[in-house]
């Protein structure tokens, strides 16, 4: 089966967590909004189409008659269907729990530059963004990364304590990548406090399964999406 992945065509965003799993798992898929002649308008039209279980927002995955929304939900499905998660129910729920924790941090990272309203420009909420970013840098980055560091300290090499990566390792890689982009000064100060997290980031970056994707030019750069680089929001 070839899945249809729908996400905004010009940004990595939350869709990148799903792309990494599809690419590393060698799972056939079509990026529908990035096909020739397609656009964000095509995504909006498809999202509004009549279906039994409509998505609230992208990303969503179409698999035969099923439409699966929410990043963690999509990954839960792919993990079980394609062996990207542990075999046991306990293991799959544990990986999903970790993915949901990553989703919490992703939301907080986004809210550093849009703390009041996502529909308003950053320039209209710069004062509030500066306060939110300071709290994120000083309190939330250490809190979240310390948690993942503690989880990794009790495993062999991967978050699920197995000999092989799961989709949540790919997601933690992308989260750390986003933090390194958006907060390079702060990450330069604190990264050494989380050697297990940074080692996992390096292991995923070197995965043979991902090298064709990384070298293809299809992996979109960070920019106007969740992880944005505003110099005034970063500090050591």
From TrEMBL:
It holds the Pfam family GST_C_3. PROSITE patterns: GST_CTER, GST_NTER. Gene3D superfamilies: 1.20.1050.10, Glutaredoxin. Residues 88-233 form the GST C-terminal domain. SUPFAM superfamilies: GST C-terminal domain-like (SSF47616), Thioredoxin-like (SSF52833). Residues 1-86 form the GST N-terminal domain. PANTHER family: GLUTATHIONE S-TRANSFERASE. This is Glutathione S-transferase. The lineage of its organism: Bacteria, Pseudomonadati, Pseudomonadota, Betaproteobacteria, Burkholderiales.
């Amino acid at each position: 089966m070839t899945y249809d992945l729908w996400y905004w065509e010009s940004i990595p965003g939350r869709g990148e967590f799903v792309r990494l799993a599809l690419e590393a798992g060698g799972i056939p898929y079509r990026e529908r909004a990035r096909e020739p002649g397609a656009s964000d308008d095509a995504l909006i039209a498809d999202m509004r189409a009549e279906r039994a279980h409509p998505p609230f927002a992208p990303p969503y995955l179409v698999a035969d008659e099923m439409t699966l929304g929410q990043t963690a939900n999509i990954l839960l499905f792919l993990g079980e269907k394609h062996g990207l998660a542990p075999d046991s129910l306990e293991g799959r729920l544990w990986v999903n729990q970790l993915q949901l924790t990553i989703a919490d941090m992703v939301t907080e990272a986004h809210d550093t530059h849009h703390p009041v309203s996502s529909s308003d420009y950053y320039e209209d909420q710069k004062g509030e963004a500066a306060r939110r970013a300071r709290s994120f840098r000083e309190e939330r980055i250490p809190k979240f990364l310390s948690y993942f560091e503690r989880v990794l300290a009790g495993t062999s090499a991967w978050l699920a304590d197995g000999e092989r990566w799961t989709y949540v390792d790919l997601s933690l890689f992308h989260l750390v990548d986003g933090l390194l982009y958006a907060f390079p000064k702060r990450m330069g100060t604190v990264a050494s406090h989380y050697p297990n997290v940074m080692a996992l980031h390096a292991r995923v970056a070197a995965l043979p399964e991902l090298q064709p994707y990384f070298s293809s030019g299809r992996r979109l750069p960070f920019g106007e999406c969740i992880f944005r680089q505003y110099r005034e929001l970063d500090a050591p």
